[in-house]
Amino acid sequence: MMKRPQSVLVLLHSPERDVLLLERARSPGFWQSVTGSIELGETPHQAALRELHEETALQVSPSCIVDWQQANRYEIFLQWRHRYAAGVTHNVEYMFSCCVPRDTMVMLSDEHVAQQWLPWREAAERVFSWSNRDAIYLLQQRSQAALCQSY
Q1: Inter-residue contact 90 to 5 (CB < 8 Å)
Q2: 3-state secondary structure labels for all residues of 28-50
Q3: Based on the structure, what is the number of domains in the chain?
Q4: pLDDT in the model for residue 49
Q5: Which domain holds residue 60?
Q6: What string of DSSP letters covers the chain?
Q7: Is the distance from CB of 117 to CB of 126 less than 8 angstroms?
Q8: Integer distance in angstroms from the first to the last C-alpha of the chain?
Q9: Rounded distance, CA 29 to CA 45, Å?
Q10: What is the Cα–Cα distance from 35 to 12, expressed in whole angstroms?
């Protein structure tokens, strides 16, 4: 089945704004936040909640997932275009965040081989995607009340 050219990015961060990064199993050295395609019939918020659980085994309240009401459109990397229908070259990525204590236990799916919590500046330098980097920078501009709802 072809992937839909719509996805979510979920910044998992601590109240201190440290960011959890995951290393992709199929692309060693590619670090990222929680990401994933929106499935047919799913809202972006539902996809964010599902992807967070699938990639980290975290089960959080739906209210913990903060919708930034922002989306990025970007060109799909050539090495991943085969996953999409012929002629699809761009993806729309909806941005979310979820605040949890840094010592929260995370269990990785087989999509990832490593995890690390990093201070936000280091996390922004480590991620491979510009949209992920920009989201981490935007994290610093959002108010604490807007970021850390109950988990």
Answers
A1: yes
A2: CCCEECEEEECCCCCCHHHHHHH
A3: 1
A4: 97
A5: 6-147
A6: -PBPSEEEEEEEE-TT--EEEEEESSSTT-EE-EEEEPPTT--HHHHHHHHHHHHH-----GGGEEEEEEEEEEEPPGGGGGGB-TT--EEEEEEEEEE--TT------TTEEEEEEE-HHHHHHHBS-HHHHHHHHHHTTS-HHHH----
A7: no
A8: 34
A9: 28
A10: 11
With respect to residue 137, please indicate whether it lies within any of the assigned structural domains: yes
Instruction: Copy the structure tokens of residue 44.
Output: 């972006």
Instruction: Report CA dihedral (81, 112, 106, 8) to the nearest 10 degrees.
Output: -10
> Across the strands, what pairs with 75?
90
Two structure tokens written together for 10: 């979920």
- pLDDT tens, residue by residue, 90-123: 999 999 999 999 988 899 999 999 999 999 999 9
Residues facing residue 94 across a β-bridge: 8, 71
pLDDT-based confidence at 144, cuts 50/70/90?
low
In a domain, 1, yes or no: no
Take residue 33 and report the two structure tokens written for it: 């936040």
